[in-house]
Amino acid sequence: MRRKKLTKGTLSSIVILFIIICIIAILISVISSIFTFLSNYKYELIIIGIAILSIFIVVKLIGNLTKNNNGGIDEEDDEEKRENLDYIINLSTNNEEREYTYPILENDYKNRIEHINSIIQDIENKQYIKNTFIQKENYKIRYKDELNEQQLDAVQTINNPLLIIAGAGTGKTKTLSYRVSYMIENGINQEDILLLTFTRKASKEMLYRTKKLLELKTININGGTFHSFANNILRKYYKLLNIKAHFNILDTVDSADVIDLIKRELKLNKIDGKPIPKKATIQKIISMAKNFRKSIEEIILLKYPNLIDFIYHIDIINSEYIKYNKNHHLYDYDDLLEQLYICLRDNIQFKNIIQNKYKYIMVDEFQDTNIVQKLIIVPETYPDCKIIKLEKNYRSNQGILDFTNDIVNNFNIGYRKKLHSDNNNNIIPILKRLGNQEDEAEYIKNEIVELYHNGIRYKDVAILYRSTFHANYVEKAFIINNIPYEMHGGIKFIERKHIRDMISYLRILLNPFDAVAWNRILLLLENIGNATASKIIREIENNNGNINFQAFSNNKYYNELVKLENVLKENMSDSIPVYLKIENINKYYAPILKSTDNEADKRLLDMDVLISMSKEYEYNLEKFLSDFTLEPPNNSFMDAVRPAQPEDDCVTLSTIHSAKGLEWKYIFIIHLIDGLFPNSFAIQNIETLEEERRLFYVATTRAKTKLTLTMPSYFASYNAFLQLPSRFVNEINENKYIKEL
Predict the structure, then answer these.
(1) What letter does residue 420 receive in the DSSP assignment?
(2) Which residue from 258, 413, 594, 719 could staple onto 600, CB 3.0 to 4.6 Å apart?
(3) What is the pLDDT of residue 387?
């Protein structure tokens, strides 16, 4: 076995461990002496108490050591990090003997993957005749001059099924925008076109480009996400579909809150002494069951085998969750898609209307669609389906692309792409292994300072990571050294407590049966707890949604209920603009927030963002709430409505999820240790492992000029160490990157 050089972090850990052992030895000696000296039994309890207290102090000291070594547990990543730590604890402390482990595939699943890959192979092997392009005189766009050969072929293939495989940085958005323009220039009615995208921002950008290309004053193409499309269609045809006209949409946090309410109602806290899983975990299981179209039992056996004892109870919660949402006119994200699918499947009249309305459908980011989304658009492999690959990259140099192409080669499922670039600058990626997390942060800081001194702007540099807590040491190094930075992927705007409070008030104005919203705002009031809130909500339901708290006039919290009743009733009128409703409610809400939050004034500034955002909706509260929930504002929107900051040139610290669609000249991907990236949960399942590998691909393809990969030599936690480099790097051909170990 090869000898390893002791790092600064390892030595400090050994010294502290030695000190702790000495303390324990001294404590045992002292307690033993006292016990021998005192023969009276009444002192034994005191001595035992001292011993227990001493052990507690030592355990606490060890806990603090571990916490300091890990950089603490970030509140946002609490659940994910604990999943990682559960995995780490079970590892052998002798990591030098440990190798990469991969999930064992069941035969059925293995056969399924092989079947999918054989279909993909057949599609890729088909030979297609390229279209001959004819530039008509009336075209406003010179397509042949502005597109490469593959892009042009994709643009003009409009009357046959088409699958476009677009690599990162290959001009996919441009191609789709030109394709829509080409359809319009060839006489296709705009209202016959449906553009489904992964985000509303992507849809807006494509339609904006089309409008600009064709110099149109207005554009009438239907565009949006699957969820927004489902929401709009269900509301438009609610009578035909026999569903409620007004319903509220639950995001994942709301869904988890509903589950929490149900757990309370059913008094499900522990089963045979074991605490029932957290609401967020149950929410994930229910959502996965819908998306994969499997039972709760199947999902738990497949994804959460450690929760097998709770199958029966989670199944009950799921049944109650479905009833609850139906009774309170609530739809979660999955319900929107499920409802649309059922309506298209079972209502022939509705299906014919939709089929006749949308003759040309384009789906962006199709690889991200789930089973229900695929069932909605029925993506069977048409015999005449054409496949076009966009492989010319306009972002990265060839050195980076050679590295990312190797990642694609390791995908278990998917179409093969080999990206190439005219930029033959072979600055190949670097893998840098440092002593510990502090050394990693110090290295990154020094590299960025050097880049800055060489004329590179801070804004051209990004640090990307799998989970927010990975950035703790880097952020600390930036603060100490006065390096300006901004973080993406922290607590989202919609997840901020005060914003969720305000949205809850607005949801009640739209749907007074929304028990989740009621529960949230009632618990803000003094002297009202969970039990009282439940009584008040039941009274509202029994009163057919009428807001009247007279039944509680003898209670000490009645005056607070009256104030709440007044502010809600005063803002229910449809003649009041949405922004004014927010302003009015905020006058009532601000004192409540200030009574419990020392930073209330700072948080209330976010209401300006909400008010600014709501103005474009005028009087349409329903659309505002739907859009806000389905496509919440991002940091760029908040920056647009707030005054410019004095320091615009700053390094970006971002989760990889938040970096999708963005690019920087210099990219550092940090904490590339197996068990952190891919994370421990993903390693146990082939599908989640594949998702992590694709996430790594996303991260590496953000780089334009130089890609640097870093990792500490170990990640220590409790009684184990993670030391193996990420398997995603280990899978890459060693001549595609430089190791600096």
Answers:
(1) B
(2) 594
(3) 84
Distance, CA of 172 to CA of 179 (rounded, Å): 10
Residue 699: closest CA among 390, 404, 393: 404
Compute the distance between CA of residue 650 and CA of residue 644 in angstroms, rounded to an integer: 13
Beta bridge partners of 465: 655
SS3 letters for 151-218? HHHHHHCCCCCEEEEECCCCCHHHHHHHHHHHHHHCCCCHHHEEEEECCHHHHHHHHHHHHHHCCCCC
- 187 marked as binding residue: no
699 annotated binding-site participant:
no
How far is residue 607's CA from residue 618's CA, in Å, rounded to a whole number?
Answer: 17
Cβ of 400: how many Cβ atoms within 10 Å?
A: 31
> What's the rounded Cα separation, in Å, for the pair 395 and 425?
12
Question: Residue 29's pLDDT is what?
Answer: 66
pLDDT at 629: 87
Q: Answer yes or no: is 49 a known binding residue.
A: no
Name residues of the chain where pLDDT drops below 70. Answer: 1-22, 24-25, 27-98, 366-383, 489-491, 633-647, 717-721
Q: What does the pLDDT read at residue 35? A: 55
Distance, in Å, from the CA atom of 51 to the CA atom of 384, rounded to the nearest integer, reads: 78
Please give the pLDDT value at position 165.
86
Asked if residue 25 belongs to a known ligand binding site, the reply is no
The terminus-to-terminus CA distance of the chain in angstroms comes to 18
In Å, how far from its chain's centre is CA 195? 23
CA distances, 307 to each of 88, 127, 278, 304, 314 (Å)? 19, 49, 11, 6, 10
Supply the pLDDT for residue 161. 85
* Cα–Cα distance, 672 to 510 (Å, whole number): 47
The residues, any chain, with a CB within 8 Å of residue 710's CB and separated by 6 or more, are 431, 432, 433, 434, 440, 443, 444, 668, 669, 670, 671, 672
Distance of CA 355 to the CA centre of its chain: 32
Q: What is the pLDDT of residue 134?
A: 84
536/560 Cα distance (integer angstroms): 13
455 annotated as belonging to a binding site for a ligand = no
CA distances from 354 to 29, 223, 377, 384, 392 (A): 82, 14, 11, 23, 36
How many whole angstroms separate alpha carbon 377 and alpha carbon 369?
10
Q: What is the pLDDT of residue 644?
A: 40
User: Binding site annotation covers 168?
Assistant: yes
| pTM of the predicted structure, to 2 decimals | 0.74
